[in-house]
Design goal:
- Pfam families: Amidohydro_1.
- Its main location: cytoplasm.
- It is an enzyme of class 3 (hydrolase).
- Keywords: Cytoplasm, Histidine metabolism, Hydrolase, Iron, Metal-binding, Zinc.
- One of its GO terms (biological process) is L-histidine catabolic process to glutamate and formate.
- By secondary structure, this protein is an alpha/beta fold.
- It has two domains: about 120 residues, Urease, subunit C, domain 1; about 290 residues, TIM Barrel (Alpha-Beta Barrel).
- Helix content is about 40%, strand content about 20%.
- The chain has 16 helices and 19 strands.
- An eight-stranded parallel beta sheet has the order 8-9-10-11-12-13-14-15. A seven-stranded mixed beta sheet has the order 3-2-7-16-17-18-19, covered by helices on one side.
- α6 links the parallel β9 and β10.
- α5 crosses α6, α7 runs parallel beside α8 and α9 packs parallel to α10.
- It is globular.
- The relative contact order is 0.17.
- The structure holds N-(iminomethyl)-L-glutamic acid and zinc ion.
- The site of N-(iminomethyl)-L-glutamic acid has 13 residues, from α4.
Length: about 425
């Protein structure tokens, strides 16, 4: 054991070389760069070399240094998976709402009756920072066991300052104490809280005048997100909040066209948002505008599956030139899963994406969706030593053999954190 790791003789090593500058689009999403009998050399937490085993070993042996060898024969080696959209930090769960939905209630009916996001917010307001930390820590362990090494996490279960701050502080604690890197997003505009129900415009003002400046002053988040949806925040309100955030240096994300078409994709393009997420009901015009503006579409097929809704048209988006990323949307209401590999299967079977495009969507495009394209998402010299090894011989089998967790070994910042399916940090 030491500072040097060699992952040797992978049956397929997928590097995604050459994709750090900008997210991949169209045909580019299928350019994985696959090396057979591939080896990765990691030193001091960073990738030092990747290529065919004989070539890497010739360089390594010349240096005569000790290394931990990980045998990847018969296995698939990819960049550590990245989940660019989660509601990781929350209290409680909502299985009774699942039951109600199975009997015909809709997600929005439940939310409008004071349940849904409001129910999770009540519980999250009552939980301590430590309780939120402990629950999220356990969920992060599950993410890691599914091959995920970086997670974006949103606030949004407070919709008042103290709880929003508590969630974002818990995210900081997790970033320090858990091997997974956490990237934080402020989402005060997740729902209009009950005490502002009759005066939603005042809540928008409160976010703009009070919460956003404090988020920036206290360095609590990098991104700013709004749930733009009929009955939640209108496009003009979302625009005000996202523009105000941008002036303060917060990059814009938007929950767009999830339940109803609502000009969310168009708004994302107009604002130059880094991502527009969900997009189940995005219009053709909205998709076209996203492609022109280079907005990344973060697709969340777990949500369509769980809400029994029509899936986003991933195929059309890729064919139209939208860079696509994939995510779990992990949250207690619309997608209570940490399995990014399941999301990958759904993307193939329900959104018309190919296995190669899906690999791109959970690695380099997901990295760009959180502004980390230069640090993670591909196996290239100088990038973080974040690697996932799956117990399948090729990337197509990963997506074909569904409902099974094929994650075998995970390396984070050059340290083995999952070995033979067990946490070892
Ligand atoms: N749609 C808004 N937010 C989440 C769901 C949050 C919840 O139901 O708790 C989503 O992305 O699906
Ligand atoms: Zn979400």
């Amino acid at each position: 054991m030491g500072d040097t790791i060699l992952i040797r003789n992978a049956s397929q090593l997928v590097t995604l070389k050459g994709s750090s500058e900008a997210p991949l689009t169209g045909q580019g999403m299928s350019n994985l760069e696959i090396i057979e009998n591939g080896t990765v050399w990691i030193k001091d937490g960073v990738i030092k070399a990747a290529g065919r085993d004989e070539q890497i070993m010739a360089d390594y042996e010349a240096g005569n240094e000790a290394a931990e060898i990980i045998d990847a024969r018969g296995r698939l080696v990819v960049p550590g998976l990245i989940d660019p959209h989660t509601h990781l930090i929350h209290a409680g769960s909502r299985e009774e709402e699942f039951n109600m939905r199975l009997s015909g209630a809709t997600y929005m009916d439940i939310m409008n009756a004071g349940g849904g996001i409001h129910a999770t917010a009540s519980k999250t307001r009552m939980a301590s920072r430590e309780e939120l930390f402990r629950k999220a820590f356990a969920n992060l362990n599950e993410f890691l066991l599914h091959g995920v090494t970086t997670v974006e996490a949103k606030s949004g279960y407070g919709m008042e300052w103290e709880t929003e701050k508590k969630q974002l502080l818990a995210a900081k604690d997790l970033n320090e104490h858990h091997p997974i890197d956490i990237i934080s997003t402020f989402m005060g505009a997740h729902a209009v809280p009950a005490d502002y129900k009759e005066r939603p415009e005042e809540f928008v003002d409160h976010i703009i005048d009070y919460m956003l400046p404090k988020i920036v002053e206290e360095g609590l988040a990098e991104f700013n997100d709004v749930f733009c949806e009929q009955g939640v925040f209108r496009p003009d309100q979302a625009r005000r909040i996202l523009e105000a955030g941008k002036k303060l240096g917060l990059k814009a994300k938007i929950h767009a066209d999830e339940i109803e078409p609502y000009q969310g994709a168009e708004l994302a393009a107009e604002l130059g948002a880094i991502t527009a997420d969900h997009l189940l009901k995005a219009t053709d015009a909205g998709i076209k505008r996203m492609a022109e503006a280079g907005v990344i579409g973060v697709l969340l097929p777990g949500t369509a599956f769980f809400l029994m809704a029509e899936f986003a048209n991933g195929r059309k988006m890729i064919d139209s030139g939208v860079p696509v990323a994939l995510s779990t949307d992990f949250n207690p209401g619309s997608s209570p899963t940490v399995s990014l590999p399941l999301i990958m299967n759904l993307a193939c079977l329900k959104m018309g994406m190919t296995p190669a495009e899906v690999i791109t969507a959970v690695t380099i495009n997901a990295a760009h969706a959180i502004g980390r394209g230069k640090e993670i998402g591909s196996i290239e010299i100088g990038k973080k030593g974040d690697i996932t090894i799956f117990n399948v011989p090729n990337y197509m089998k990963l997506q074909y053999s569904f409902g099974v967790n094929h994650t075998h070994t995970v390396i984070k910042n050059g340290r083995v954190v999952v070995r033979e399916r067990k946490l070892v940090f």
